[in-house]
Write a structure and sequence with these properties.
single chain; about 600 residues; alpha+beta; Glutamine Phosphoribosylpyrophosphate, subunit 1, domain 1; Rossmann fold; six-stranded antiparallel sheet; 23 helices; 20 strands
């Protein structure tokens, strides 16, 4: 089934072979479930390139000396003092900065991007990735054929032959990610984050990468207050530039605190208030709180209803949307993107990744019992990311291979993060986080702007001590004023974002106890609707649609590296040794291979 949305699929696929230029368009269109007419073809002695028409219109520059492609919608801080979302007129200066090797070019961009520069005279190809590769680029140069793409499965489609990486498959089922730099394909890997990579097109094995940025712990701030002021000013600058040319915007709004901070930031600019959007599968507390928050900030609120089994209903298309190395369950907007209301917005803002970069979500720290949301946090020494992996469904040899890849990645992280290696193992690059699929999906469906992954936020997050971010200290100090309109509206978890402990420890206790009872009811089928926005997976897995999805994936189970290769899927996906999310990961991979 083809996706009818044609507006924002900004991706490219390159090969050094131009003998079958049409196949590049077909390969990219097939990976994204799009019609070939959505893409444009370019070819020359340098090779063949398929690129989305949207990118060709806005973010492509062709001169006598270079062909430049910029994927993404970062903010441009121009030398003439003007600011705004990047436009075609910015690309020449950006490319000049990348090719010159000058480090200052990074200060002119903020936000996710991937840049491809082809020099037909020197026969070189240059790739620049954003600091954490939020828009990953994949490359295969293990033979005379070079393939480069922003979509991993398009790269696989373009290759003359490709082999599945069974260790990566096991890794994905267990962890919901594939450890950097690997993919589900043996000879396709991810280009380093925060780097400039150059490839000699006369000898594609000649490839060199150099980091222009690494998340080093170099703290220029004297205390949390000073860092918070810098964070607040940087975030406001980014958002102000992003909304300058957009009069019709929206933002995602939940029952949490990040989206209400975003509402406060966006409404502080005056008359360009966004429309608030909330997804619900069934009416729940999250949507009820979001309605109150929207009223508090004076926002028009639209509740968008999805099918209770929304994710399983769109399993195949969502996998194509995010790519096979990302979880399909992160594609929250897929399947509703053709709603005329969504297509009409010039930009849709989100609060993704505030927890990761500003609240030490991935740090090794003490946690509250049974998920108690307000608890005294204490940073723990060491790391557990590379602990031995034990699982009865996979051979010891396979598990050892998965662990070794995680050890290798930890060693890379230890080169620039020692005390906080447990945290940055999951942050560098962005593909190490299972939730990265959310951004991959959104950026392909509409113009998605995420202020909490701006360069201002990333640089500050890397520089300050992890302890400053714990317990919401830094976040709260920076953005408390923007929480004031909703200070008496509780978070979906029961605490009040405007306040810190110990007040919240007292008021959130009853809600925490009630939620524990409701989660138990969901698990045992005594309740059908979830309290939060996302699915009741225990209910979904008892549905007829789930059973049908398991059956449809039957041809793909043989590709899963489990101990028994005779399983037809039903037994595997009922195995109690797999968590709910591991079952979803296994079903996703089996479905992908069954259809491929």
């Amino acid at each position: 089934m083809l996706d009818s949305n044609k507006k924002n699929h900004m991706d490219f696929l390159y090969t050094n072979s131009n003998s079958e230029s049409r196949s590049m368009t077909d390969s990219l269109a097939s990976a994204l479930r799009q019609r070939p007419s959505v893409f444009h073809e370019l070819a020359g002695d340098w090779g063949s390139l398929a690129i989305s028409v949207e990118a060709t219109k806005c973010n492509t520059l062709s001169t006598r000396n270079h062909l430049v492609i910029l994927i993404g919608t970062p903010v441009s801080y121009r030398t003439n003092g003007t600011e705004g979302l990047v436009t075609k007129t910015d690309i020449a200066a950006i490319a000049q900065g990348v090719l010159s090797g000058a480090s200052r070019w990074m200060s002119t961009l903020s936000g996710p991007f991937a840049i491809l520069i082809i020099d037909p005279r020197k026969m070189t190809l240059t790739i620049a990735t954003d600091p954490l590769a939020f828009i990953p680029v994949y490359v295969s140069n293990y033979s005379d054929q070079l393939v480069v793409s922003t979509h991993v499965d398009a790269a696989a489609n373009a290759k003359s032959s490709v082999s599945r990486d069974r260790t990566s498959i096991a890794d994905f089922i267990l962890h919901g990610i594939v450890t950097y730099p690997y993919t589900l394909y043996e000879d396709i890997q991810q280009v380093p984050p925060g780097s400039i990579t150059t490839i000699d097109l006369n000898n594609v094995r000649r490839i060199s990468s150099k980091h222009y940025w690494l998340p080093m712990a170099r703290n220029p701030y004297s205390d949390v207050a000073e860092a918070a002021q810098s964070l607040r000013e940087g975030t406001l600058r980014f958002l102000r530039a992003a909304v300058q040319t957009e009069t019709n915007t929206a933002q995602f709004l939940s029952g949490g605190e990040d989206s209400r901070v975003l509402a406060g930031l966006l409404t502080s600019f005056g008359d360009k208030n966004p429309v608030a959007l909330t997804y619900v599968d069934t009416p729940n507390r999250e949507s009820q709180i979001a309605t109150k928050v929207a009223q508090a900030y004076g926002l028009e609120h639209q509740v968008i209803k999805r099918h209770p089994q929304h994710y399983i209903q769109h399993l195949s298309g969502a996998t194509a949307n995010v790519g096979s190395v990302s979880q399909f369950i992160q594609a929250h907007s897929y399947g509703i993107q053709t709603d005329p209301k969504l297509e009409s917005y010039g930009a849709i803002f989100g609060g993704w990744s505030a927890d990761a970069f500003l609240k030490a979500m991935y740090a090794r720290q003490t946690t509250g019992p049974y998920g108690f949301p307000v608890y005294p946090h204490r940073l723990l020494a060491g790391e557990t990311r590379t602990s031995p992996i034990i699982h009865e469904l996979f051979s010891q040899e396979r598990l050892a291979e998965v662990r070794q890849r995680r050890v290798d990645h930890m060693n890379r992280v230890l080169e620039f993060r020692t005390d906080s290696c447990h945290e940055w193992f999951m942050l560098w690059p962005a593909s190490m986080r299972a939730t990265s699929g959310q951004f991959h999906s959104n950026r392909r469906l509409f113009r998605s702007i995420e202020p909490f992954i701006s360069h201002e936020v990333l640089r500050l997050s890397a520089s300050v001590p992890t302890s400053w971010k714990m317990g919401r200290r830094l976040f709260h100090e920076a953005f408390r004023e923007f929480l004031e309109p909703s200070k008496w509206i509780p978070h979906a978890s029961g605490y009040y974002p405007y306040r810190l402990s110990p007040f919240n420890a007292i008021v959130s206790l009853p809600r925490w106890m009630c939620d524990g009872a409701m989660r138990a009811a969901l698990r045992y089928g005594l309740r059908n609707s979830a309290v939060a926005s996302w699915s009741n997976w225990h209910g979904v897995m008892r549905s007829e649609r789930w059973k049908a999805a398991v059956l449809q994936a039957s041809k793909g189970y043989k590709f899963l590296p489990i101990v028994s290769s005779e399983d037809e899927g039903g037994d595997l996906l009922n195995d109690r040794s797999l968590s709910v999310h591991q079952k979803l990961n296994a079903l996703q991979v089996a479905t992908f291979f069954a259809e491929g």
